[in-house]
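Notes from hallway chat w/ T.B., transcribed later so I don't forget. T.B. wanted the structure written out for a chain they're using in a teaching module, and asked if we could keep both sequence and structure tokens in one place. Agreed to drop them here.
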Amino acid sequence: MTRFGDRFDDDDYPAYTMGRAAEMIGTTPAFLRALGDAELITPLRSAGGHRRYSRYQLRIAARARELVDQGTPIEAACRIIILEDQLEEALRINERLRSEQKSKS
């Protein structure tokens, strides 16, 4: 049974409205919509159809904002973030495989 409070510990729980999310990362709702249009993040929708963002999505959006603030076009910023994420995942897999290989030796 999931307790209500457990949701707030979940990085993927869509706890933040668009306005609050934009305020938290110091940007505009239009910027968040642009990230959605670029398919970097896909916010969940409330029953009323409003966008809701998770903490994980806000971290991604904050990274995109950082890159854009440095002069990177938004499309390029989104691609950079996707590649960073893929690299991080590949490194995790590599480390897991190395650990498994060591334990077999």
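Follow-up for T.B.: The two ends are 41 Å apart (CA to CA). Might be a good example for the class.
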